[in-house]
Amino acid sequence: MADQFVERWRSPVRRVLTADLGDEPAVLAAFAETAGDPDHPPVGLVVFAGGASSGLDDGLVAARDRVWSITTVVRAVVGTWHGRSPRLWLITGGGLAVHDGEPGAPQRHP
């Protein structure tokens, strides 16, 4: 999903940099590169978080790890950017459906 987004969003007027959320130095370097051009400040950060887990315990560990990784992104913004803060979008897959007919992966227990 992230690669498709990058391919469709990148253009001559939109700069798109990517980094693996699990690689903290890469995330910090990507934001530093983005923030290094004061004429073209970052306007948004898109974080793709998701993935299937094999059970509740694995899901909780994966969720904890994702939250920790996302805080890296937030720390990069708070610690290095002094202009108008860019928006942060969190994109997830396989979320819970709220209403019947919505896409998602609800787990119903009898």
UniProtKB/TrEMBL annotation:
Sorted UniProt keywords: Acyltransferase, Transferase
EC number: 2.3.1.41
One term of GO molecular function: 3-oxoacyl-[acyl-carrier-protein] synthase activity
Highest taxon in the source lineage: Bacteria
Name the record gives this protein: Phthiocerol synthesis polyketide synthase type I PpsD domain protein
UniProt source species: Mycobacterium kansasii
